[in-house]
Amino acid sequence: MGTPGTPRSAVAAQLLCDKASKELAPGNRSLQVAIFNELSSFDNREALRSRIGDLGNAAFSARTSEHGAREEERGREKTPLLNAAVGALRSPASASQPAAALRPPSSRCGTPFFVWSPLLNKHLSVKHPAELDAARSVSFGALSTSVSLPELVAVSEGSAKPSGLGNTQLSRKKEKPDPTAHLRRCPIQMGEGPMLTSTYQSACAGPLAKAVDPKWSTDLKAEDFRNSQRIKHNSRMSGAVNGAMSPEMRWLPKTYKY
User: Fold this and answer.
1) Which region ranges are annotated with the description Disordered (predicted)?
2) What is the distance between the alpha carbons of residues 15 and 8, in angstroms, rounded to a whole number?
């Protein structure tokens, strides 16, 4: 923590005194100030640590004795309750009572828990689960029926058909035939499927349909151009059609590839 006598050593000693005072007296500000003032008067580091150790042992002994006295007091409080519970269990009337009614009330209390609220700039205590359950039971009662949704009208098999909006919805649910199904299945129609095809099926089948469609396939377009050039070249070589010519091979350009 730095060389004794230097500013760094003094700051480290102050931090040690502050930390020790908070650990020895949590929640008691006046006692923390008194412990801090006492520890700040020590110049020797070893003496300071020894004094902190003595105060820690004293605080631990005090807390242990206080805890033992508290447990003893709780035991004295529980003794008549336990005797009453044992007597109730031995009585013949206890056979018809539930176990929860015979159970003695619990005297245990939860440790308070605090959280820091940046909005309020202070610590807030968190309620015990038992208190929260009690608050919920008071504020939110059990609802027998729903108050936010309208009631549904029960329709039996032999009852009359609903009129108005219900009848319109029933008419919309009828599955009608597709009169243009044969046109939609044609590859010339840009690979579109029937009316009942989902968007996922259409997206998957679209590229495949366009690949085999000469209107969209680049490979089929190139193959068609090569075939036309080959037919024209063969016609010129044979001289069997009007306008054909038969020059020498080196003067006849070849514009296609097999």
Assistant:
1) 157-181
2) 11
Q: What is the pLDDT of residues 35-84, one digit of tens each?
A: 888 888 887 778 888 888 888 777 777 777 776 667 767 666 656 655 66
For residue 22, pLDDT over 60 is answered with: yes
Q: In whole angstroms, what is the distance from residue 88 CA to residue 95 CA? A: 9
SS (H, E, C) the chain: CCCCCCHHHHHHHHHHHHHHHHHHCCCCHHHHHHHHHHHHCCCCHHHHHHHHHHHHHHHHHHHHHHHHHHHHHHHHHHHHHHHHHHHHHHCHHHHHCCHHHHCCCCCCCCCCEEEEECCCCEEEEECCHHHHHHHHHHHCCCCCCCCCCCCCCCCCCCCCCCCCHHHHHHHHCCCCCCCCHHHHCCCCCCCCCCCCCCHHHHHHHHHHHHHCCCCCCHHHHHHHHHHHHHHHHHHHHHCCCCCCCCCCHHHCCCCCCC
Question: Are 178 and 184 contacting, i.e. CB atoms less than 8 angstroms apart?
Answer: yes
pLDDT digits (tens, 9 = 90+) for 171-216: 666 677 878 776 666 555 555 556 677 778 878 877 887 777 777 7
Structural contact between residues 184 and 209, judged by C-beta atoms closer than 8 angstroms: no
Cα 160 from Cα 100, distance rounded (Å): 54
| Model confidence, pTM | 0.25
Residue 30 near residue 56 (C-beta atoms within 8 A): no
83-115 tens-digit pLDDT: 665 565 555 555 555 555 555 555 566 666 777
